[in-house]
Amino acid sequence: MCYGNPMDMEWAKDGVTGELFCVQARPETVRSRKASAAMTTYTLGQRGTVVVSGTSVGESIAQGPARVLHSPDQMDKLNDGDVLVTERTDPDWGPIMKRASAIITDHGGRTSHAAIVSREVGVPAVVGTGTGTKDIKDGEEITVSCAEGSEGFVYDGILPFEEKQLDLEELPKSPVRLMINLATPDAALHWWRLPVNGVGLARMEFIVNDVIKIHPLALTRFDQVEDAEVRAQIEELTAGYADKSEYFVDHLARGIATIAASQYPDPVIVRMSDFKTNEYAQLIGGTQFEPAEENPMLGFRGASRYYSENYKDGFALECQAIKRAREVIGVDNIVIMIPFVRTPQEADRVIEVLGENGLERGKEALQLYMMCEIPSNVFLSDLFAQRFDGFSIGSNDLTQLILGVDRDSENLSDLFDERNGAVKMAIAQVIEKAHAAGCKVGICGQAPSDYPDFTRFLVEHGIDSISLNPDSVLDVLQTVGK
């Protein structure tokens, strides 16, 4: 506040001297006009002709001309506010997706890349339409509705809809801690007003892929990079950094710190990198340092990378970024979470490496969590509980590994259900055994966002926290608050 009004201020930092200058200050007229205790809901005024339908992501409605693209190289064809229509997305589509008013894909489900990013940037998406790129004409005016339940619809033409503000102060209180899942600093600043108490899953992969863009080993082992074009790309991106590794640490630390600051002092649980090898290979310089695996989902990922000589120096950069965010920037509400820990012995090796990098459990109030997403995590939960302060159940991976169902398979989509008796039995067992050992248990998978009955099951079994996709917090709050 300045002169009695909220102000929009712009700053510039001199790259040579490090001096900070205020270059502009003007009355802020957008954020300050939004009610701090209100959220928006959407209702379609009338239904029209359905062009395609698919899985609904989000709860809003958007309209505009369709832009059918087949490659991120066509990004110049998409204008701000257009509806992006494509076969599927991957991290290369990130910059385009942020400019779209809605996203439509032929392939993918509610845990696909397009679904995750659309939730993060706060735009509706209809994924897995099957024929969107064929049935929707480029330039055609369409309405995308994700306000009608689990199925999303793409209607021909511009249809009327109602936008309504909801007073958050009138919402019921939750009997369990509600948190949110986030991946980008932008999303953190967009969703900070939600009535939650922390971030149950902060993914660093989007910062690495969309901001840093370079494989960490191509920075720590730059002298080994063979491809001249790759070396040139790295030199261009890291210009101004005497130490190329510092480029990675600096960007990751600031990105994570922004997410943590949005919920301070509530806990923000940051999952260390969980790219699969085929995803790491897509980073600049990545192909040289990643093995070709037949099944990356069950391959060299998560905890197994952190102590391996084939990635250990890359993990050290992640640790430096966490340490800087906590101890230098000052967001000490960051909690570290380790994914895909296969055995207690592997946990010990990771904990040792964390200590070598100055991240010791209990020191400076640092807490250490692990993802519970493998059957062995369930069976040996009492042993894992001796090594960690908390578990976060990853219901997506846990379900696919218990049921033997590829969560991205369209042919098996009807079998992928977190409400299956075997999955619920495993979750109930983890909660009971972890609590007996004095260990907290939360969940950060997709299921609580989609199924009210599953959410009630979790509450009844005494789960400590539920971390949700931001767009589903209000609905879940209505469910658990009854």
Automatic annotation (TrEMBL):
InterPro entries: PEP-util_enz_mobile_dom (IPR008279), PEP_synth (IPR006319), PEP_util_AS (IPR018274), PEP_util_C (IPR000121), PEP_util_CS (IPR023151), Phosphohistidine_dom_sf (IPR036637), PPDK_AMP/ATP-bd (IPR002192), Pyrv/PenolPyrv_kinase-like_dom (IPR015813). One of its GO terms (molecular function) is metal ion binding. Residues 173-478 form the PEP-utilising enzyme C-terminal domain. Its cofactor is Mg(2+). Residues 3-40 form the Pyruvate phosphate dikinase AMP/ATP-binding domain. PROSITE patterns: PEP_ENZYMES_2, PEP_ENZYMES_PHOS_SITE. Residues 79-149 form the PEP-utilising enzyme mobile domain. Gene3D superfamilies: ATP-grasp fold, B domain, Phosphoenolpyruvate-binding domains, Phosphohistidine domain. The keyword Nucleotide-binding applies. Keywords: ATP-binding, Kinase, Magnesium, Metal-binding, Nucleotide-binding, Pyruvate, Transferase. Coiled coil: none annotated. Pfam families: PEP-utilizers, PEP-utilizers_C, PPDK_N. Belongs to the PEP-utilizing enzyme family. This is Phosphoenolpyruvate synthase. It comes from Kocuria soli.
